[in-house]
Structures are given as structure tokens and as C-alpha cells.
Amino acid sequence: MITPLIQNNYQISKWKNGNGTTSQIAIFPIEATLAESNFWWRISSATISKSSTFSKFPKFERVLIIWKGAGVKLNESILNPNSPFIFSGEENIYCELLKEETVVDLGIIYNKEKIKVVTNIMTLSETTIYKLSVGKHLFFLAKGDNCSFNRMEISNGDSILIENINELEITSKSFFNSQKNLVLYHIHLY
């Protein structure tokens, strides 16, 4: 099953600490809520426009990827675009912008006792056949446009959730028109 997740339909909510907003892309189980922390995993995109502390999520692990903007400093670690950063949801994290510009991230929060998560940054310049292992797979289009997965098309900032499919054909009109690369964030949940 292939389910497109279009950014215009993402659910917008306040951060747990009240210092900003995030766009929820997907949560499992679907009736779970951020406020109750009763989810196995949650994938969202947040806009960071000022320095702030991160909300804590005890018993959860977190992955953060910058997809727009120069990057951030999380405590003493520099996080540049397209570089996953993994940390404990129990950690005290202070976030500073590297430049005076807004940053947009993709964040994954997951219950480490219930699920495993592997994140892969993919740069594609041609049609690719991609083999999928057991579990759920979410692809987020961070760079490029008109990307299709087995003919299901999404645009920049959209996602696609894939279940019970062994093989994907990933292609883009960009490959044929202007030879531009796509950057996809692949999140494997199993």
C-alpha cells in the first residue's frame, strides 16, 4: 500500500514546550497523540526561527535532519543540512541557529522499547529500483519536485508512506528535463 502524505494536509500543533509549532506528517498508532506520548513513532517537520530548548520525551529516541536553512547547534554539536542527528528524548537539548535565518527540520520521535528506526539520506539522479525490507517505509522529498513512487507522485515537502511492498520504482520528471538531483529522506520503521 502506498499512501501519499501531502504537506497541505499535515496536522499543525504547538510544541510540547510551547515555544513553536510543528507539522505532524504521520503518527502511529493513528489515534495516538503527542500530548499523551502514547505513540510508537511520530514524524513531523518543525520551523526553528529562534534559539530554544527542546521538549523532553522520556523513553523515546529522536532523530533530527535539517532540510531547509544553514543548520543549528544542538548543545555542542553542529547539525548541517541532510545529516541525521540522533539523541535521547531525555536529554537536555538547547538549540541555536547557525545563521540569522529560519531552519526547517524533519524530526522522528520513537519509543525505543517498541520499534527500531533507520534513517537514510538518498541522492538520486536517475530512475532507481529500490528494494524494501519488512516494516513501514516513509520517504520525505527534501529536494526536487515531481517525484513518483510506483507512479504515485509527490512534490517537495511531501511524504509517502509505504507498507507491504517489496520493490519501488523511484523516478522524477527532473531527471529528464534538467538533470537535477533528488534528495529523499528514507525512514525505515520496523
* Sequence of secondary-structure elements: EEEEEEEEEEEEEEEEEEHE
Assigned CATH class of the largest domain = Mainly Beta
**Proportion in β-strands:** over 45%
Into which percent range does the helicity of residues fall? under 10%
Calculate the mean pLDDT score and round it. Answer: 91
CATH topology term of the largest domain: Jelly Rolls
CATH architectural designation of the largest domain: Sandwich
Structure classification: mainly beta
What is the β-strand count?
A: 19
Largest sheet: 6 strands, antiparallel
Spans of at least 5 consecutive residues with low confidence: none
CATH superfamily heading of the largest domain: Jelly Rolls
Strand order across the largest sheet: 2-3-4-11-6-9
Number of domains: 2
How many helices? The count is 1
Span between termini: 16 Å
**What is the general shape?**
globular
Rg to the nearest angstrom? 16 Å
Could you characterize what this model shows?
The protein is an all-beta fold and 190 residues long. The chain has 2 domains: 10-111, Sandwich (Jelly Rolls); 117-189, Jelly Rolls. It is 3% helix and 54% strand. The protein has 1 helix and 19 strands. The chain has one helix at residues 173-177, and strands at 2-5, 11-14, 21-28, 41-48, 52-53, 60-68, 72-74, 77-79, 85-88, 94-97, 103-111, 117-124, 128-131, 136-143, 147-149, 152-154, 159-162, 167-172, 182-189. Strands 2-3-4-11-6-9 form a 6-stranded antiparallel beta sheet, with no helix packed on it. Strand 15 (147-149) and strand 16 form a beta hairpin. It is globular and about 45 Å long. The model has no long low-confidence stretch (mean pLDDT 91).
